[in-house]
Design a protein that fits this description.
mainly beta; five-stranded antiparallel beta sheet; 6 helices
Length: 711
């Protein structure tokens, strides 16, 4: 067993190699951590990239071919660098990929972006990049405030192999979950997850995984050090499935007056074979050259009452994911994350709740929902077996003609907190909770977790869309079922540099615009553990909002700890935004104390009915009135790459000088070898393709915009 801070032992046989966490499986666990052997809760919260790594290619390949193999139209290759006010960040031309591998060799997703706090015209961006076939950690940089971008290549092909059996090199097959940040000396940093895919898709059993940090020393992201410096390394060369490192994010303390100036922090989730998923942190005080031993962040707490019948070697908070570290001007480190160990009794803010949250079903799966309009008509104790969405031979015109407005739209929203109908005592309640822990000693120790807010996750995808079993998604309200890309609600926090106030943003499917008053109510759990609701496909009923919970006492208490999510402030309350989905947010404070938040937004044109999406930025200097501006100038259709089920897990924003959101954009068409060409006597030609659902097959690119922070 390994010893880490707080005297907590990791839940697998392992040894520690300082400075990085080096987990070496000493024997095969009782249950190997292949995708089919994950527990229900582990499958639910596993990141999209990791799910692809563990689950294999067959389903994705079949869905990809089905989405693009209907009709073909000859087309000439295009290499756009920008579309008006929107700039393409990854500066490459599209590779022509076989239809069953659409997305591989092509896509960019899971985007991150950061500005140099000393020279804000310098920006660096990162993303999962599939140009080499599988996902890799790639970067781009800009020296003119984001008007033009250049690519740079991260040397991530192999790292030193000391941990992996004492060999010279460990070669990696894939990578992703990137994030970028700057220090105060002009150095940029990249965090990159790497892994081997194992026997699911290769003849190499190695399932090792690791986190590495790369530093761009004075070149603004144009070049990176080699090899990457290890934060955590998990040796599973034998393919035992002992554990999996997942969903790491990074921040750097770039406050000149902080006593931890330029310290690099990384947090992540460790999925173990005993069914647990704890959050850990490590730090570097030498500019990313070496990292500390891991520190447990998701410590035991009375807030965690439901352990899913699983092991609790590090406390009852054993189901966590999507941790995000952020730093205040005084050097305090905050980590916020989604936790699933709450009970599901009466939510906070209910008259009869008593401030408690101790009820609930210990398994949180396979409850029997009520039957109402917009929900499935069968109990989810026997989950639907349909894995292919219904095919519409004549799709509505709206699915092929998205809004094309090129003038950004600005709306003003005044925050209201009028109490709405709650579901006190509802046996079908299904909320979860956002937690936060704080470190005042540079990441060496953490406070016990505090409640930021309860929230409602996105609905089960196969129940409402007939696709992607075991994952949640963002269903459109129309009759189509094209929006099947996996998604989840997660927290992102930031600290006001002027006041030290802490703001945490997160998505919630129940909110002031989407609740029992208009036909959207919790309806228990699917067999997968994902949430069910009434009114999911009903216009004007359910929609996801970005909510805000704040702390004025340094993260000790939050407004959302006593206010029901149905009454918390939302970032967009105008009529169009109030009935539309917003998700995948990121938050940042400007130097003058204005909160900026970017998010995917279906509040334009017919996005909410068709499943198209835009990107918006909201800003507020008082956290009461938000102004929202459209950042994307064309709506993006539902993705078709990866069978339409993967477009990343998150998207980024930086707001040191102006707002610079970055998102995965699907406006650019995919290209394929035209059928019948590339044969003897017939030169090859490229074609676009329209699927049976009427959507033109599309590529996934990283796009950005530069705009003033709305206020």
């Amino acid at each position: 067993m390994i010893k880490i801070r707080r005297r907590v032992a990791l839940p697998l046989a392992a040894v520690l190699s300082v400075p990085a966490l080096a987990l070496v499986s000493s024997q095969a666990p009782a249950t190997a951590l292949t995708y089919d052997k994950l527990t229900t809760i582990q499958k639910r919260i596993l990141s999209g990239a990791a799910a692809f790594a563990l689950s294999g290619e067959a389903e994705s390949s079949a869905r990809s071919a089905a989405r693009v193999a209907s009709s073909f139209t000859r087309s000439t290759p295009d290499c756009p660098t920008g579309r008006g006010t929107n700039v393409k960040v990854n500066q490459n031309c599209l590779n022509v990929t076989d239809a069953d591998l659409a997305g591989r060799g092509q896509a960019q997703n899971e985007t991150s972006i950061a500005q140099n706090p000393q020279t804000p015209r310098q920006l660096v961006a990162s993303f999962n990049d599939y140009r080499r076939g599988d996902g890799n950690c790639y970067t781009s940089y800009s020296n003119d405030g984001g008007q033009q971008w250049n690519d740079s290549t991260v040397p991530m092909g192999f790292t030193r192999g000391t941990t992996f059996g004492g060999v010279a090199r460990e070669y990696w097959q894939s990578g992703g979950d990137t994030s970028v940040a700057w220090d105060t000396r002009g150095n940029a940093y990249l965090s990159c997850q790497v892994f081997k895919r194992g026997a699911a898709v290769t003849n190499d059993p190695d399932q090792s995984s690791a986190f590495y940090v790369f530093r761009s020393t004075g070149t603004g992201g144009a070049s990176w050090n080699f090899p990457g410096r290890p934060v955590a390394e998990l040796n599973d060369v034998a393919g035992t499935g002992a554990a999996l490192l997942d969903k790491q994010l990074m921040t750097v303390d770039n406050h000149v007056t902080s006593k931890f100036r330029d310290r690099v922090y990384v947090t992540w989730t460790l999925f173990a074979a005993d069914g647990t998923a704890y959050i850990y942190e490590a730090y570097s005080s030498d500019y990313g050259e070496s990292f500390s031993a891991p520190v447990l962040v998701s410590a035991d707490s009375p807030l965690c009452v439901n352990t899913f019948g699983g092991a609790t070697p590090s406390g009852k908070c054993n189901a966590n994911q999507f941790s995000q570290p952020f730093v205040g001007p005084d050097g305090a480190l905050y980590v916020t994350w989604a936790n699933f160990n709450n009970g599901v009794g009466k939510p906070v803010g209910d008259p009869d709740a008593g401030g408690g949250d101790t009820g609930g079903d210990a398994n949180r799966v396979a409850t029997t929902p009520t039957t109402t309009t917009g929900t499935p008509t069968t109990s989810t104790t026997t989950p639907p077996v349909t894995t292919t969405p219904p095919v519409t031979t004549t799709p509505p015109v709206t699915t092929t003609t998205p809004p094309t407005t090129t003038t950004p739209t600005t709306t003003t929203s005044s925050i209201t907190t009028t109490p709405t109908s709650s579901s006190a005592g509802n046996p079908l309640e299904n909320y979860n909770q956002i937690l936060l822990a704080k470190s005042t000693d540079g990441g060496a120790t953490f406070s016990p977790p505090v409640l930021v807010s309860q929230y409602y996750d996105l609905p089960d995808c196969v129940t409402y869309q007939g696709a992607d079993p075991g994952r949640a998604c963002v269903p459109e309200t129309g009759t189509t079922t094209n929006s099947v890309f996996r998604a989840t609600n997660y927290p992102v926090g930031a600290v006001n540099p002027r006041t030290g106030a802490v703001a945490v943003t997160f998505g919630s499917y129940l909110n002031t615009h989407s609740n029992e008053r208009n036909g959207c109510a919790p309806n228990g759990f699917a067999a997968s553990g994902n949430d069910l609701y009434t009114g999911v496909k009903k216009a004007g009923a359910c929609n996801n909002d970005i909510l805000l919970s704040t702390s004025s006492d340094g993260g000790k208490t939050f407004t959302g700890s006593t206010v029901n999510p149905r009454s918390l402030p939302t970032l967009r309350t105008d009529q169009a935004g109030a009935v539309a989905d917003q998700f995948w947010q990121w938050a940042d404070y400007t130097p003058d104390g204005t909160l900026a938040v970017s998010f995917r937004d279906r509040g334009y044109g017919n996005d909410q009915a068709t499943g198209y999406t835009d990107t918006s930025v909201s800003g507020s200097s008082n956290l009461r009135t938000f102004v929202t501006r459209r950042a994307s100038n064309v709506s993006s259709p539902p993705p078709t790459a990866f069978g339409g089920v993967f477009m990343g897990d998150y998207e980024g924003l930086t707001a040191v000088s102006g707002a610079h959101p970055i998102w995965t954009d699907t406006r650019d068409p995919d290209l394929f070898l035209c059928p019948g060409t590339g044969a003897t006597g017939v030169p090859p030609s490229t074609c676009t393709s329209t699927g049976a659902n009427g959507i033109l097959a599309n590529d996934e690119n990283a796009y950005s915009a530069s705009l003033p922070v709305p206020r």
